[in-house]
Amino acid sequence: MFWSQKEKKHTDDLAVAYLLGTALIRDGQASQGQVLVDRILRNGDSAEAHLMLGRPRYKAADFAGARDELAKALAHQSESPWRPRVVRTTVWQVTSSPEDALKEFQAELAIDPHNFDSNLQIGAMLRKDQKYDEASLT
């Protein structure tokens, strides 16, 4: 009830549609969630649409496809409250150099020092490289 009221107040906000639509789908309310997801996908070339298309590709191990969709999402980053850089950088860890991924996560922390995913990934990468002192500061 709460979220449907929020959605009605923000019918043009794709970020709200993304949050509510994906939450409803994950909760087993696919038909209600699909209405919101369709609104995002009909909008076409938006950060939310490309993020929505990139995440399942990543989960399906289509890393090149995910990287391409997330790069498109990143191109719209200034138009969206989402942080597609974090998702794209996670894909880079698999498809590109870990050094580039680390730099991207650090760039995201310069924008948002409390970004959980960036902090987590940097800490994990440093731990893997046995840089324990640096990892503990993350």
Explain this structure to me?
This protein has 138 residues and is mostly helical. The chain has a domain at 1-43. Helix content is 77%, strand content 0%. The longest helix has 14 residues, at 30-43. It is elongated.
> Taking Cα atoms only, what radius of gyration do you get, to the nearest Å?
16 Å
Average pLDDT, rounded to a whole number, is 76
Distance separating the two termini? 38 Å
Major beta sheet, specifics?
A: none
Query: What percent of the residues sit in helical stretches (DSSP H or I)?
Result: over 70%
**Can you write the helix and strand succession as a string?**
HHHHHHHHH
Low-confidence stretches: none
SSE diagram, text form:
Elements: H1 2-9, H2 14-26, H3 30-43, H4 47-59, H5 63-75, H6 84-95, H7 98-111, H8 116-128, H9 132-137
Can I get a quick summary?
By secondary structure, this protein is mainly alpha-helical. 77% of the residues lie in helices and 0% in strands.
